[in-house]
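Subgroup meeting minutes
Present: P.N., E.W., G.H.
Scribe: E.W.

1. P.N. recapped why we're keeping a running log of single-chain structure predictions: easier to compare across weeks, and new members can see raw inputs and outputs side by side.
2. G.H. added today's entry (296 aa).
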Amino acid sequence: MRPDGNWSVRIIGTVAVLGAVTCTPQQQARSRVAATASLSSSGWIDVTATLDPATTPVYEGDAPMKFEFLKDMRKGDGFTLSVYSMGAHSGTHIDAPMHFIRDGAPIDRVSLEPLMGPARVIDIPDSVQAIDAAELNRHEWRGAERVIFRTRSSLRSWMASRTFHRDFAYIAPDAAQLLANAEVQLVGIDYISAEQFGAQAPRTHQILLGKGIPIVEGLSLESVAGGDYDLIVLPMKVAEHEGRQHGPSCGSDPDRRPVADPTACRGPPVANRLAVGWSFHRKVDSGHNIGLISRG
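Output recorded in log:
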């Protein structure tokens, strides 16, 4: 996010469709030209945790992850075709309000608005397990529209370890309440749950999801520094379910230069960007991928 709080135009995939709704044909044309000229894969950091039964942690009690090749050209078949099964909260994923709110929105009804825009990555020391209100207030989080925590999980590469670690860093309910009261639009963290393991009640989830704030969990932030980014989260559209994997990506423009006419359709900011969706970077034969993108 630029110091003056303004966004430059950057249109990616479905974002172009959204931006076109309120633009004149001339503005749409200018935006498409500018976006095409400026859109590049360079400078993006894939922050999606690779889905692999050998390295992906599964939350204790959750469904196991299974990958299988039904057809395999390496074994003489004419084509390769795979199938996989896993819990909706495996790897990098989004919690929709339905996860802990009885009448909360399922993932296919979560608006794109909180999933796209400025985000701040906050570095939490390895010694901290509970990100409570006191810890949160030690950091410059106020004014951030979206807050993502980089914790001991990234420092210890736990999202690339099949072992489930119960002592992961979590967001305490009092910190969740501060974030909700500040009307943060999205919260993210680098392990497969934002809630303390064994908590008597899922208060953190209830507080955030009860306010309609989606939670991005399982981000792979090992190579991402703290700072301000643009975030794009594009979950797979699954009807009437509470969570879904997605793909985040992250990149930066050191000069924080505008990439298009600011009077044209609005898009995500330019400098640092975080993107979560199914259309970036690593792919299996189905085209699934997830990444974090720091673009400003």
